[in-house]
Design brief:
This protein is mainly beta. It has a single domain, classed as Sandwich (Jelly Rolls). The chain contains no helices and 12 strands. The strands form 2 sheets. The chain has a 6-stranded antiparallel β-sheet, with no helix packed on it. The model has no long low-confidence stretch (mean pLDDT 95).
Length: 124
């Protein structure tokens, strides 16, 4: 069983947020990916439709997560299940950074509203 140390995690930044990838194929994972998300105050990520299920657990802070058009205020300790094919938008309307732990299966793709497809490197 590989142990991924904090110094082994790879940091990515996109849409104003920071993604710290811990479990990916490059760190030894065969089926799942896991990362720590850091969403600064005032960040509003674009809505995107995901190709695979994601489990989003908020460790610290508060977010407004809109899932298939329905807004949800999410606070530390809450878990959001995002099914494949769902559209998700994440916003941090607070004055502090929100921190999350997210898991999905390898190969996640996100499609933005304009049709652009993204393969996030923290979930590839």
């Amino acid at each position: 069983m590989p142990v991924v140390r904090p110094s082994d995690a790879v940091v990515h930044e996109m849409h104003g947020a920071r993604f710290v990838a811990h479990a990916t194929p490059s760190t030894g994972s065969r089926e799942l990916c896991a990362w720590r998300g850091e969403i600064p105050a005032g960040t509003r990520a674009p809505a995107h439709t995901v190709s695979r299920e994601e489990i989003f657990h908020l460790l610290d802070g508060e977010l407004l997560m809109t899932l298939d058009g329905t807004p949800h205020r999410v606070t530390a300790g809450d878990t959001v299940i995002v099914h494949a094919g769902s559209t998700l938008a994440v916003e941090n309307p607070t004055g502090g950074t929100a921190v999350s732990w997210v898991t999905t299966s390898h190969g996640l793709e996100a499609t933005l509203g304009d049709g652009k497809r993204i393969v996030p490197p923290w979930a590839a």
